[in-house]
Task: structure prediction
Amino acid sequence: VAVFKKLVRSAEGAHVPHNKNTENCETVKMPVPKRVYVSMSQHIGAPAKACVKKGDEVKVGDVIGTAGGFISAVVHSPVSGKVFALDEVMLTNGRKVQAVVIDTDGLQTVSENVKAPEVTDHASFVQAIKDSGLVGLGGAGFPTGVKLDPQNLDEVDTLVINAAECEPYITADYREMMECGEDVVEGAKLVKEYLGLSKVIIGIEANKPQAIAKMTELTNGLEGFSVATLPSVYPQGAEKVLIEQTTGKEVPQGALPAAVGVIVMNVASVGFVNRYIKTGMPLVTKRLTVDGDAVANPQNVEVVIGTPVKDVIEFCGGYSQEPGKLISGGPMMGAALANDDMPVMKQNNAILAFGAEKAKLPDASACIRCGRCIAACPMGLSPVEIYLAHSVKDAEELKALYADLCMECGSCSFVCPAKRPVVQSMKEAKEFMRKAGN
Amino acid sequence: MKLTVSSAPHITGKDTTASIMRDVCIAMLPALVAACVFFGFNSLILTAVSVAACVAFEYLYEKMLKQPITIGDWSAVVTGMLIAFNCPPSLPLWVVVVGAFFAIVIVKQLFGGIGFNFANPAIVARIILGLGYTGMMTAWVFPDATATATPLAMYRAGTLPSYIDMFIGRTGGVLGETSALALLLGFAYLLFKKVITPTIPVTYVATVAVMALVLGIDPVVYVLGGGLLLGAIFMATDYTTSPYTMKGQLLYGVGLGVITVLIRRFGNMTEGVSYAILLMNLVVPYINKFGRQRPLGAPEKAKKEAK
Result:
């Protein structure tokens, strides 16, 4: 049977090193920095609109940005203090977005608006989640309130909790389970109840046996709950891969998981749901893994959103060597930062700093057509053929090769022995396809 | 602070083109040792000259055309070893240099260098030398002084060579093909290092064995007695000239097996491996189309939908 499956699609993934150096580092709360830069675009969709002005006093949990559209998310003040300016910050993709700059007073006075929401049904639950400012904390940043309100709710029966944490180095989700496992289970119960689901599957990679044991124990006897052990091969945490691994279902091209009756949420997002419904404290802090060979004391920290990366690094003992590369997120899909002024955002889960040696880019050589990119691609795509089709501008062929299914996980680039920027060529091919009107 | 801003992924795997090619060379060492044992020190000299000629031709070609020098990727070394492995140990050294020229300059570099050749350079070299210097290319050396023919020729003439001699390599033939034991050691190394998957060699050999049985031929002689293992393990698995996917590789392996047996059984030649590989190399682009995978989430009948 396994051989037959391989004939349809190899989908080996990439055997990336795990480097979970910080897995046993209990989360440390970082003190509030002097100044925070809260971006109005910390999610997929329309940026939020700042609703405060220079000189305004704000408290923790006050709304400082209102949702800018249907797919958007509110932004709250993570600190108490005074608005210093409405400025701009540059995102990792080079786009500039509005940001509220707040000088903190260090008191962290909580806003009187922060109180547990009243939730009685699906509609009030979705409203509460929208008010919480929650976005997918795994990295994608899709507004959770929108996700929990699918058009075909009655066809959705399964919540898959993404606790794969397949990116090397990152252990933030692992710490969520080890430190706040109860929140995860309670949060899952809330989602299950208000969305009327029958199944909850928690997917965890095999390289986290303690988390698997803990979540199995916590969900023992709970109806509809199960823990799925995933192979420790990147990228188990990719949404479509995770759904296939845990439910055996294939999300059709161009469709959302809800089309096959599934909603996927990151494990930290689920934990947050419980905390928010209990306390009403919106999303104002984030747990981050800080690691890399240029960080003096690698660890997991909880920081207020908007904290500049350099302050986080400083809290972790500063740079242990001249950094050659800074990454927001994991080494497979994270974005390289141009400087360390960039603020932490909701969907960030790691800051990695590497020295010059690891920042060196490999020299690319000619493709030897070994087919390893095809064997590795978790989607079963053919990067080498997509590259060739794009090089002769053949939009029809790109369509036949399903180039648009690429999720840019980077497995192809990782395994390429010629060190070619394969995922880059995939992005370019997709861009070309889009322009060609496919 | 000088930060490198490059796109993800920020890490890559350990394997490089050079490390893969070097592993192929290492995997060929047991067969080279076996050749030295059974055919004498001359085997080593022939191999060294072939390798040196391949590397030199690649260097000179690239230097003359002011292209980046790629001899560091070890692929010319692989080709050099394979050409020598496909020659009888008694071959005059200048003939192997001619083979190296055809392989590197004509088949590899004129088509764009590594990754762009349509056929395996060493296979083409073997075929050209076989056609152009037939006498020298069939001047066999026999470890066993009483022997007068290669196992396949003996079998054709009605005698049965010893299984154990064929397995160990105490038989006549080209330099690298005689010892099944040494070739299998190399195969194990390539599998262990994940340089190749077993798909092509296993389907190829299995097809030959099954077809031989069906045609009433001793399958052991067909598997061990000629260039099958050398071809199946080291030449049919050449990345550039073999199919990408497992599905394609299965078809490729079956095709190789069928053509090999047809040539050996019904053709004028006793050996059919190199022509089988060359012919199948040529249809790889079509096999690749046939062998495409169905991506996750793509419709079941992907091909019909796409048209």
Notes: Chain B has a mean pLDDT of 93.
